[in-house]
Amino acid sequence: MKKDKLKIGIYELTGCAGDALLILDCEKELIDIFKAADIQSFRMAKNDNRDEELDVALVEGSVSTEREIEELLDIRKRAKIVVAIGICACFGGIQAAFLDKKDWEKNFKEVYGDIKISHAKPVHSKPIDAHIKVDYYLPGCPIDKEQFLSTFNRILRGNPPELYRFSVCVECKWNENDCLLNKDIPCLGPVTRAGCGSVCINHNLPCVGCWGPVEEANLSSEFQLLLDKGFGYDFIRKKMANFSGRGIADFLGKLKGEKG
Amino acid sequence: MKKISVDHLARVEGNGGITATIDGNVVTDVKFSIYEGPRLIERLTIGKTPEEDVNIVPRICAICTLSHKYAALLAMENALSLKVPPKVFLLRELMHLGEIIESHSLHVYFLALPDYLGFPSAIALASRFEFEVRIALEMKQFGNHIMKTLSGRYIHGENPVIGGFGKFPSKEDLVWIKSRAIQFMPFVFKTVTLFCELDYPNCPEDDTLYVCCNPDKNKYGFAGDEIMLSTGETINKDDYKSLTNEFVVSHAHAKHSRYKGKPYSVGALARINNLGHRLQGEAGKMYKKYFNPRWHRSPLFNNAAQALEILHAFERIPQLINELLEYPEDPPIVNYKAKEGKATGIVEAPRGLLIHSYEISRGLVARSDIITPTAQNIEDIERYCHIAAQKLLDAGQEDKIRDRMDLVVRAYDPCISCSVHMTEVQKAPKDDWKKRLEEVKKRSSPIFIGVGKTNLSDDGVGVELALELRKLGMKDVWLESEIGEKEKFWIEGTIRPLIFLDAVDFREKPGKVILLPLHFVLSNSTLSHRLAPLLSLVINYAELKDAFVLGIQPESVEPGEKISRPVRQAIRQVLDLVMNE
Questions:
Q1: Are residues A38 and A131 both part of a single domain?
Q2: Superfamily for B433-579?
Q3: Residues A122 and A191 in one domain
Q4: Is B121 helix (H, G, I), strand (E, B) or coil?
Q5: Do residue A14 and residue A138 come from a single domain?
Q6: What DSSP character marks residue B535?
Q7: A83 vs B461, residue with greater confidence
Q8: Residue A12: domain span
Q9: In this complex, which of A22, A49, A94 lies closest to B59 when CB atoms are compared?
Q10: Rounded CA gap, B317 and B325, in Å?
Q11: Is-cis flag, bond preceding A142, omega within 30?
C-alpha cells in the first residue's frame, strides 16, 4: 500500500445497510475504488479491518444504541473528516420518526416489554450530528451512485463535495415530467432534496420525500398547497414526516403551535 | 469460564457478533448478538396508509428491499380485495428474480468465497482472479439492472405499487434483459460447478427442519400461499404464527422463532431441500448431479444451493420474458375502494421465508407484523455454531472455533438489519443457577428429587439426573415415583433444602439450566410444561420454604427415550457442580 493513499473507513450504524450496499453496487468502479484509496475498514466487504487513524470516515445509519454512541465517538476521534451518508445518518431516517422521546419509549416498551437488552442498550434514535461534528452530508435513501462517486472523487483530491442544493422539482423539470401537483397528486418534490434524478416522478409516481428536506424548502407553502387541494391536516403532516426524522422536527414543532 | 467471540462479523449485512462460552470441556452457550439498534418499524407503520406502508417497509433491509415490497404488496392487495392483471404478476416475478441474482451472487462470490480460498475479501481475491471477480460483479450488476428496470432504482425503488406499476418497462428493455441472461449462461454454469464442488468441512452436521413457501402448480419458485415444511406438513399463510412462535431474547433486537419448540432453517438451502426435485432443465440436471444427503445436514451447503438458484433464475428469465411479450398493453394501476381488511403476504426473500401481515381499518394500517428470514434462522445459527464449537473442542481444536463459527454464520447469509420488531413478550427469568446452587449447598446438603417421564425424550432429564447422582454415590436422591409413601421425608425436608430436578420449558435454548425457588415456579404456570406431578405435592410443599426447582430447558418432549445433545451437556454441567465439594 502506497503511503500517499487516503485512509478511508466505511461504517454502518442502525439502518438498512443500503448505503454500504450501494457502494458495493458500484460494480464497475469497485475494484478501482479499492485501488485508489486505502480502505481500512468496510465490514460489509472485508474482514481484515483495522481501527486506526483515518483521513475520511463515511458513516451510515442512525445512532440507536449506547454502543453505537461509543463507536461513533471513537470514529470521530480517529478521522480527520466525517461524512454522514444516507438519510439515517443525515436526519435519522424512518426510525427517527418518533420525535418525542416519551413517544419512542412507549412504543419501544410495546415491542420489547421490560426486557433488558444486554450489550447494546437502546437509545432514542438520532442522526449522527446529535453526537458528533459532521463535516459533510451525503443524503439519499439510499445515496445515489453518481453522487457518491463524484463525492468520493472530490474527497480523494482534497476538495469538498458539491451536492445539489435545490429540490427534486429542478431535476423533475430537467426530465420534462408533467407536474403531479397540477394533477392534484400529493407530491413532496418541491421540499425534498434533489439527487435521485426525480426517479419516482419519472415513473408517474409522487415523490415520497425519502431524501429529506432541502435546506431552502418552503415547508409551510407546501403544507398550505396540499391543504388547499383538499388533503387532511394529519395526512399531510404524516406524509412529510415519514422519512425526514430530525430534519423536519422544527417545522412540525412550529406547526403544533400554530394549530393549537 | 472462557469466551470465544467474533465481535464484529465481517462480510454480512448489518452489525452483529457471535460468542461461544466454554466451561472446561463443555460449550455452555452460543449467542448470536445483534448490535443494530431497535427500529420499531412495525410501530412506525401504524396509522399510515397502505401506500405509505409499502414505501416504508422496504427500508427494513437494502438487500431484500424488493422482497419486502413484494410481500407487503401481496398482503395489502389481499386485504383490500384487489386483483392485479397477469402482466403485473409476471413482472413482479421478474423483479424478484433480479433480486435473487443480485443477492445470491453478492453472497457467494463476495461474502462467502473468500473464506474458502483464504482471502480477507473479494477485492483481495481480485488480485489473483481479477477476471472472475469482474465477471461476478457483472452478474451481480445484471441482477441490479433488472431491479432498477422494474423498480426505478438499485435500492428502494418505488415503481411497484399497490395495483400495478407506475411505469412499465419497454419491449426493448425486456428483450435486452433476455439476451443478456442468455449471454451469462457459461459463467452461470461455472458458478454452479465452483460452489457445488467446494470442499465444505464436515462440521457441523446435524438434521434440522427446513421451511419455505410452496409455489403452486408443483413448480420451483419464490412465492406461494402455503408454507411447506420438510416433514411434509403444510401451513396456510394465515396461520403463520403456528410456525414462528416468536419470542424476545436479551441479546438481540430481533425476535427468535421455533416450531414446536425446535429451531428451523429458511433460505436457499431450505428451498432446495424441499423443492429441488421440481427443478427443470439444466438446473434440474445439476440438482441430480450434486444433491446428496449432506445438503440436509450442513448449513454450509447454502452456498451451493444459492448457486443452483442462480442457474434456475437465469433459465427462468428468458421464458418469463417470452410470456411477458404476449402482453403488449400496459394495464393501468388497479384502484380499490376497500377501507377495511386483513391479510398476510408471504414470499421467499433471497434468505428465506418473509412474512408481512396487516390489518387495515378506516383506510389506515391498524396492525402490522413482519417476520424476516434471519429472525427465523437465528436459533439454528446458534445451534449449529454450538455443535461446531463442541465438536472442535472435543477434538482439541479450540483454535478453529472462531473461524468455523464465522463460516457457519456467513453461510446463512444473515441480514442483520432485519432486526425489526416484537409484539408479544415472553422471557426466561434472570438467574445464575451456579451461584445459587453453591449457596444452597453451603447451607446444608440438599435432598434431590427427580421428576418427569422417561418416555417423553428430554422430559426424562430429571429422572436421568437423579439416577446419575445416585451412581456417583450421592445420598438422599429420590425419584418422583418413590416419594409420597415416605412421610419422614417431608419432615426432613423442613430442615434441609429440597431440589426438584425437572425439564422446564421457559423458552430458552435447549440445555439452559435454571435454579429457582419452588413457589416461583408453581405460581408461574407458564414456566413449566407439565406441572401435574408437582402440583399433586403442593399441599405438602406449600410449607417448605427451602425448596427449589432445578430446571433444564428441553429440546423435545415428544414420545421417545432419547435425551437430546444440549440437554445431555447440561446434565454433565449439573453433575460436575453438584459433586464438586
A1: yes
A2: HybD-like (3.40.50.1450)
A3: no
A4: strand
A5: yes
A6: H
A7: A83
A8: 7-156
A9: A94
A10: 12
A11: yes
If DSSP codes are grouped into helix, strand and coil, which group holds residue B448?
strand
Taking only the tens place, the pLDDT of each residue in B352-377 is 999 999 999 999 999 998 888 988 88
User: Residue A249's pLDDT is what?
Assistant: 80
A110 and A220 part of one domain: no
In A141-205, which residue ranges form alpha helices assigned H by DSSP? 145-156, 168-174, 199-202
What is the per-residue pLDDT across A104-137, written as a single tens digit (0 to 9) for each?
Answer: 888 777 776 665 655 567 888 899 999 999 999 9
Which candidate in B9, B43, B161 is best for mutational testing of the A interface (most A CBs within 10 A)?
Answer: B43
Residues A119 and A56 in one domain: yes
Residues of A in contact with B152 (CB under 8 A): 199-200, 202-203
* Residue corresponding to grid cell 450530528: A129
Residue B490 has pLDDT above 70, yes or no: no
What gap in Å lies between CA B349 and CA B63, rounded to an integer?
Answer: 9
According to CATH, the superfamily of the domain at B2-418 is Cytochrome-c3 Hydrogenase, chain B (1.10.645.10)
Instruction: Give the pLDDT confidence of A168-203 residue by residue, as tens digits.
Output: 999 999 999 999 999 999 999 999 999 999 999 999
Interface check for B429 against chain A (CB to CB < 8 A): the answer is no
A199 within a domain of the structure (yes/no):
yes
Whether residue A257 has pLDDT greater than 60: no
Q: How close, in Å, is residue B449 to chain A by CA atoms?
A: 32
User: Is it true that the peptide bond before B85 is cis, omega within 30 degrees of 0?
Assistant: no
Tell me which of A98-102, B360-364, B560-564 is least confident: A98-102
Q: Does residue A133 sit in the same domain as residue A210? A: no
B47/A114 touch (CB, cutoff 8 Å), yes or no: no
Ordered by start, the domain boundaries in chain B are 2-418, 433-579
Residue A237 sits at the chain B interface (C-beta within 8 Å): no
Interface check A107 vs B, CB under 8 A: yes
Chain A interface, best mutation among B36, B249, B431, by max A CB count within 10 A: B36
CA pair distance B385, B383, nearest whole angstrom: 5
Distance from CA of A193 to the nearest CA of B (A): 16
B264 touches chain A (CB under 8 A): no
Please say whether the beta carbons of A88 and A15 come within 8 A: yes
Instruction: Indicate whether A61 and A135 sit together in one domain.
Output: yes
* Residue B33 phi, psi dihedral angles, 5° rounding: -100, 145
Q: Is A200 on the interface with B (CB under 8 A)?
A: yes
Report the SS3 class of residue A206.
coil
The answer to whether A27 contacts chain B (CB < 8 Å) is: yes
Q: Does B159 touch chain A (CB under 8 A)?
A: yes
- The whole-angstrom distance between A134's CA and the closest CA on chain B is 21
User: Based on the domain organization, do A62 and A151 belong to the same domain?
Assistant: yes
> Does position B477 have pLDDT exceeding 90, yes or no?
no
**Counted domains in chain A:** 2
Please tell me the distance in Å from B222's CA to the nearest CA on chain A. Answer: 22
Q: What is the pTM of this model?
A: 0.79
The nearest CA of chain A is from the CA of B322 a distance in Å of 24
> Residue A131 is part of a domain; what is its CATH number?
3.40.50.700
